[in-house]
Specification:
The chain has helices at 2-24, 31-43, 45-59, 65-93, 102-128, 130-137, 140-159, 165-190, 196-232, 251-283, 292-327. By secondary structure, it is mostly helical. It has one domain. The chain is globular, with a radius of gyration of 21 Å. The two termini are 40 Å apart.
Length: 340
């Protein structure tokens, strides 16, 4: 049962994040292309391991532990991981006919990153247990999604700016590597410092990087979504640098829906982990017959109810964010093009 719960707990956060970014796209991407991108992201773990294992062995010879942590964060984690995600975006997504607007860069960047993060999460969770599953669900997995969104944004801009394509792609890759390194380095270095105050500062740095990535991603998604809505109103193309006509909205009106969706996502993640974990346990024969009723009742109370309630709150928050985006465009919406 524990193994089932661990497996599900490693996957549910990624599934919710894919759903969130897919729902924020005015013209959603074809599911087949999304899940192909996700699968390619999963397979990118293999070249990262091929590159990272010998590099990690080389880093062990560095005499200064904190410096070794920085080198590991940069050369073993950030550089190869963001490179293989970029290869998926350029080698598959940019060549596909479904890639036809800047928002696609964010969506596919997130999905490729979450494919990688999901398998990585499975490996870490089976090694570290449920506590690792919970901590990574709300830290490392979203970090991968946010960094993928930021890099994907620049890839999308590059696609529609041929004269600056190489510069924008390199810029996106460089920013992704920097943010990824700044997130990983404090976590790796915390175990190497003896001063508790220094360790606390390193932990705060990691949290700050996560918050910056989150806010950056939210702004980029809002900007490109407003551009999508402007296009659906017949206001022109979505070329880089064009400012949206969206009116400024009160902070509460913009922040509350996001808070609601995050809260619902947390509830659904917890409930989904418990519910699917118990379901797998039943299917695999991990629950004894005399305890089946108790486990079923407990699963409904602590798993199914939070999952259903969380999904309702999550979807309500996403729909409200989409409504706020539409309300910010003063011209009535025309009929939007059919989803691809």
């Amino acid at each position: 049962m524990l193994i089932s719960l661990l497996a599900v707990s490693a996957v549910v956060p990624s599934a919710l994040l894919v759903w969130y970014f897919h729902a924020r796209d005015v013209y959603p991407e074809p599911p087949r292309v999304l899940w192909t991108t996700f699968g390619l992201g999963v397979f990118t773990v293999l070249p990262v391991l091929f590159i990272g294992i010998p590099l990690q062995a080389a880093v062990q010879f560095v005499g200064m532990p904190v410096l070794g942590s920085f080198l590991s964060a940069l050369f073993v984690a950030a550089l190869p991981e963001e490179l293989v995600k970029l290869v998926v975006l350029i080698g598959y997504n940019l060549r596909h006919k479904a890639f036809d607007e800047p928002m696609d860069g964010i969506v596919y960047g997130v999905v490729a990153s979450l494919g990688f993060a999901t398998l990585e999460n499975v490996l870490f969770v089976f090694e570290g247990g449920l506590s690792v599953a919970i901590s990574r669900a709300f830290s490392a997995v979203p970090l991968h999604a946010f960094v993928g969104a930021i890099m994907g944004y620049y890839v999308g801009q590059a696609y529609f700016s041929p004269e600056s394509r190489s510069r924008l792609i390199l810029k996106g890759y460089g920013i992704a590597v920097l943010l990824h390194t700044l997130y990983d380095f404090p976590l790796m270095a915390m175990g190497e410092v003896e001063d508790a105050r220094v360790a606390l500062l390193l932990a705060i740095l990691t949290v700050l990087v996560l918050v910056v990535c989150w806010r950056w991603t939210v702004r980029l998604v809002r900007r490109l979504r407003r551009d999508q809505l402007s296009v659906s109103n017949g206001e022109g193309g979505v070329m880089p640098g064009i400012e949206s006509r969206a009116e400024s909205l009160p902070l509460r009106q913009r922040v509350l829906p996001l808070f609601v969706s995050v809260l619902g996502g947390l509830m659904a993640s917890f409930g989904g982990m418990v519910t699917l974990g118990l379901l797998l346990a039943f299917l695999l024969g991990g629950v004894q017959d005399e305890h089946a009723v108790d486990v079923l009742v407990g699963g409904v109370l602590i798993g199914l109810l939070p999952f259903v309630g969380g999904m309702v709150v999550f979807l309500k928050g996403v729909r409200r964010m989409n409504s706020v985006s539409r309300a910010a465009i003063p011209i009535p919406l025309a009929a939007a093009p059919e989803a691809r």
